[in-house]
What we know:
By secondary structure, this protein is of the alpha/beta class. The protein has helices at 37-47, 65-68, 85-92, 162-175, 190-212, 217-223, 238-249, 260-274; strands at 5-8, 20-23, 29-31, 57-59, 78-82, 104-106, 109-114, 117-123, 133-137, 142-150, 179-184.
Amino acid sequence: MSDSCFAVVNGTGRVCGANSGLINRGGGVVIDTQADVPHARRMIELFGSVWPGMPKYLINTSEGGDHVSGNPLFAGAEIVAHRTVADRMRQAADPAQRLAPPATLFDDRYAIDLDGLEVQLIHVGPCQWSGDMIVHVPREGVVFAGDVVYRECTPMGWEGSGEKWLQGLDLILWLDPEVIVPGHGRPCGIEGAMEMKAYLEHVREESRWCFERGQSALEAAKEIELGPYRAWRWPARLYANVESAYRELRNEAAPVPAEPTRDRDAMVELAKARGLEVEF
């Protein structure tokens, strides 16, 4: 991505196919650790070509399982995340799952100095998750955006706020990085953040009209025109984003606990109704 910034990119854009980052300066930083231990081991193997040892720091950009499940492989690393992430990891984890929650927690901003290379951690959530943050490396023009940016695949409005999500995207645009490493999808420039913003604005506006007509979120999702976003992977995730917009219209404060079973069932129904492939 730049002289010191690298990424492992999962090509599918699936819910559990998150990207990871590496900054190979000043002891090293890994950003997000994949959805399970086998994927995390493969990530470590790939990053080993540019950083042979364990990193000094590990950053989790949210509490999502696809960002934290490989944490236990990084023994001795200082794990850094937003203040909400540790508790939410424990709440969401399978009882048999081995966890390594973050111990260094912050509220709004946190800075790491890597031998003179500044790394800025900025909390922007709740967008998709309560603990959503971006990682900015100003000197190298790189933003690791976590789930704040999806690239050419449909985002999932699990439990956050569309308004906060748009604010987070506006911040990325203001930072004007040369490279954005999204949480899902291919690395991009600011056009990726611009497209995400346009998608969320479209869904929020259309959802408002449907809400005012008394339609349910699923009924709305069956009617809202997808336009160019039909070509994005996993378009039936639209339901989750309409439900997120409806929560705001009902004045429900975010974050709201995710209901994955309900959302997946609704997405399957939506996909079948609109002739979309059933996929997550």
